[in-house]
Specification:
The chain is of the alpha/beta class. Helix content is 29%, strand content 25%. The strands form 4 sheets. A 5-stranded mixed β-sheet has the order 1-7-6-4-5, sandwiched between helices. Strands 8-13-12-11 form a 4-stranded mixed β-sheet, with helices on both faces. The protein is globular. It starts with a strand and ends with a strand. This is 3-oxoacyl-[acyl-carrier-protein] synthase-3.
Length: 354
């Protein structure tokens, strides 16, 4: 039986550290465009209490999503030991295209995947690069698509990247702007004829009714010509949606894997908000009648990395493999899960045997 196996990971973590104090001179407004009548210090203190975020990373001006993606990919290729010319697919997840500075035009053509292939120096014309826009779950969705290609026999080796420069689409008057950050993560997924490791199964859900604009892009003045577009989020709606649907989607995925919940070692969940993530995982285990969370079940890096959208899950995986996240450690045979939720609204999950 052929399974898709992660044989190398990489990450690009921007060097510019932005502490919460960076926002002390901001003036924040409500969704109704009225100034929030609270001291900025109080707003920031409440923000930290709710999200757990103390600092985040921003990419320096001039460094684009393809640059970060290529850097993460180069590390994944090196650690996997493969010849880069053997890569069949390059799948890049992002949401805002190629931007060199805040407010810059979003360059969508050529695709970021094509730019990455160019920057990696890959000459193989049979290596097919393409982008996916799937909200924060984009990297996990890329993993699912690469697995489908491998299982079907259309590919043997795939490069899956998540890269984002959210710092370039932030409205400084919006409290939610403090959540977002930049970064890139990547992995090499390869066909392995083994039943003991690799992707076991996946599940995906999409709600595009009234949930469609929970996370979106908009301008301050209804899209006047030349006006910047910002990422906007209805935080309460996103929180409620995630708690209602993500745990059951994770359960649907896990149940179809045929594995025992007592064997689940670790959950790599999109780093959106630490209180929300903890609540999601708690509800997931409650669906199995488990009230107390297993020890070391959910590694987190959001406190110092912020929410870098598609980059959060692959970056977190890379850091755990490098033993950079507390006492978290992956060993051969460990049963893990990847899961994410974001704009669309979309949810996905993958069960994986390390």
């Amino acid at each position: 039986m052929i399974r898709s196996k992660i044989i190398g990971t990489g990450a690009y973590i921007p060097t510019e550290v932005v502490d919460n104090e960076f926002f002390l001179n901001n003036t924040f407004f409500t969704d109704e465009h009225t100034e929030i009548q609270q001291p900025v210090e109080t707003i920031i203190r409440k923000f930290k209490a709710i999200t757990g975020i103390e600092q985040r990373r921003y990419a320096p001006v001039g460094l684009a999503a393809s640059d970060m993606g290529a850097s993460a990919a180069d590390e994944a290729i090196r650690l996997s030991g493969i010849d880069r010319e053997s890569i069949d697919l390059i799948i890049v997840a992002h949401n805002y295209g190629e931007m060199k500075y805040p407010g810059a035009p979003r360059e969508m053509v050529p695709s970021i995947a094509s730019r990455v292939k160019n920057k990696l120096g890959i000459q193989n014309t049979a290596c097919i690069p393409y982008d996916i826009i799937f909200g924060c779950p984009g990297w996990v969705q890329g993993l699912i698509q690469a697995d489908m290609a491998i299982r079907s026999g259309d590919a043997q080796t795939c490069l899956v990247i998540g890269t984002e420069t959210l710092s370039r689409v932030l409205d400084p008057t919006d409290r939610d702007s403090m959540i977002f950050s930049d970064g890139a993560g990547a992995c090499i997924l390869s066909a392995a004829e083994t039943a003991t490791s690799g992707i076991i199964n996946a599940a995906v859900r999409s709600d595009t009714g009234y949930e469609l604009d929970y996370i979106s892009s908009s301008s301050k003045n209804s899209g006047e010509a030349g006006e910047p577009q910002y990422i906007k989020m209805k935080g309460r709606k996103v929180y409620e949606y995630a708690l209602k649907y993500v745990p059951q989607s994770m359960k649907e995925c896990f149940d179809k894997s045929g594995e025992q919940i007592s064997d689940l070692k670790m959950i790599f969940l999109h780093q959106a908000n630490d209180k929300m993530d903890e609540a999601i995982v708690k509800r997931f285990f409650e669906l199995y009648g488990i009230e107390n969370l297993p020890e070391n079940i959910m590694p987190m890096n959001i406190s110092h990395m912020g929410n870098s959208s598609v980059a959060t899950v692959p970056t977190l995986l890379h850091q755990v493999l490098n033993k950079e996240i507390g006492s978290f450690e992956l060993n051969k045979g460990d049963l893990i899960m990847f899961a994410s939720v974001g704009a669309g609204m979309n949810i996905n999950a993958v069960t994986y045997r390390w």
